[in-house]
Amino acid sequence: MNRETSPFRTPSTGASPTPKHASLTASTNLRYSLTRKSIYDRHLNRTKTSELSKSAFAFLFGEMVQHAQKKVYGVQDLEKKLNQHGYAVGQRFLELLLWRDGRTAKRETRILGILQFISHSLYRAIFQKAADTLEKVRENEDEYMISDNDPLVNAYVSVPKEMSQLNCGAFIAGIIEAVLDGHCFPAKVTAHTAPSELWPGRTVFLIKFEPDVLEREALRVGG
Amino acid sequence: MVMVIMAIQLTGINRVVYAVLILNKAGGLIYQRDFNPGLQKLSSNDYLILAGTFHGQVSLASAARAQVHAITSQISPTNETTSSGLEVLESENFVMRCFQTLTGTKFLVFAEPRQPNLDVVVRRVYELYADYVMKNPFYQIEMPIRSEGFDRHLAAYIKPHQ
Amino acid sequence: MAGSSTSYYFVIIGTKDNPLYEAEFGTFKQGGDGVPKFREEQRHMNQFIAHSSLDCIEDLQWASKEMYLKAVDKFNNTWVSCFLTGGNIKLLLVHDARSDEPIRQFFTDVYDMYCKTLMNPFYEVNMAIRSQIFKAAAKKYL
């Protein structure tokens, strides 16, 4: 009856009056695809149990690394770029994970809590396994290490000799950094290759918190 | 009991593979590695010539050198367009197995004579190539292979006990 | 206050205390039509009230692990309720009667929609949200 010829239509909710003073909420044209479904009609758990082919991921990740390589001047720059890509993923993954926990969702308020969240819940949600170790750096109060014996992103990556400093795990480091940042634990996370005899691709993610994080933590212990 | 022993031999735990060569679709040598002594050592230039000779893109009429792969596919008694060219070469001292992918990349495996199941070996090399070379973001297609992961996994497969 | 019918002011605050989205609506309960009935001078007061509650939230967020902090601040007869997401995005609702449970459900729905917004690769954290979709959640619970 009321069919429209245009593939896009404006939802009726968009027609409601907007406050005069609120320029932020200027009237919107939420677009509907041909299936008449917007992103808000899809359930967030739709892809919770679906699996991705490791090859598909490897090719996609490889393309990402190649793309990032085009616009950089050195290894550090490339790692920064990969970190940024991971950061965007981490920001989204964090909210999605907490959303999936529903009413039992908890924000972590302590350093140890958030690190455990990362090395267990987050790692398991992304890679289907927990991180291999979580340690504190003995010499430095503000540094922690999460290690992964065989990071998925590096499964097929062989770094050329002239770029031996590079570890594409910088992508995962970016994810970790985003989660820490999201919970107000600003930190710098870097990926380092630390091969062991059994695990030639072992990678350590070094987490260095900013000073005010430790300050706050100390205050909370005192109070 | 005899059957069991045969089966173990067939899976080739102690296979002796002399060398693996990979040729790109233009006939250039992109990978060469010796695993066991048995073949005569060649200079790197000789390996390149060997690869080019074996490959033979040039048609037989204009070819100055003998181009083994091209010749064999052309002298095939069946329809020449369907012939895949040389696949196995056997001599007293070695056996060579060639496998050509759909895109024209060739895998050559040199092994001890009467080595069983070489086609399985060559397939596995192809698989490792697909994984650790083609999925490596730092590999430029058709260029010489310098992939530490490929080296490692190839060695682990061909010489598992060393 | 705004007479017999309840009105709400809803705002999403980003990680840098920047507003991402704001909306006003009236109650849909008891035959309400959803039209906000704030007096003109109350409308900008709402923004001030929401803004001043941010300090309270920053104190509270370290005392509790809950995402829903319930009513966090009160100014005269106006309450501020807050829901804090994992990414430190604050959902604030300014309202004039305390009712924790319906507001929790409202926030849960909004969080669901916020997550969906965030899944959009063209949307970045702290970007203004231009969809009016969040009002739909108000219809169900408030």
Describe the structure.
The complex is a heterotrimer of chains A (223), B (162) and C (142). Chain A has helices at residues 54-70, 75-101, 111-127, 170-182, 211-222; strands at 133-136, 143-148, 187-193, 203-209. With 223 residues, chain A is α+β, with helices and mostly antiparallel strands. Chain A has a single domain, classed as Trafficking protein particle complex subunit 3 (Muramoyl-pentapeptide Carboxypeptidase, domain 2, 2-Layer Sandwich). By secondary structure, chain B is an alpha+beta fold. Chain B has helices at residues 2-11, 44-55, 68-74, 118-132, 148-158, and strands at residues 17-23, 29-34, 88-90, 95-100, 106-111. The radius of gyration of chain B is 16 Å and the shape is globular. Residues 1-12 and 57-66 of chain B have low confidence and may be disordered. Chain C has 142 residues and is of the alpha+beta class. Chain C has a single domain (7-141), classed as Beta-Lactamase (2-Layer Sandwich). Chain C contains three helices and five strands, in the order ββαβββαα. In chain C, helix 2 (100-119) packs antiparallel against helix 3 (135-141). The mean pLDDT of chain C is 87. At the A-C interface, helix 2 of A face strand 2 and helix 2 of C. Chain C: It comes from Drechslerella stenobrocha 248. Chain C: One of its GO terms (biological process) is endoplasmic reticulum to Golgi vesicle-mediated transport. Chain C: InterPro entries: Longin-like_dom_sf (IPR011012), Sedlin (IPR006722). Chain C: One of its GO terms (cellular component) is cytoplasm.
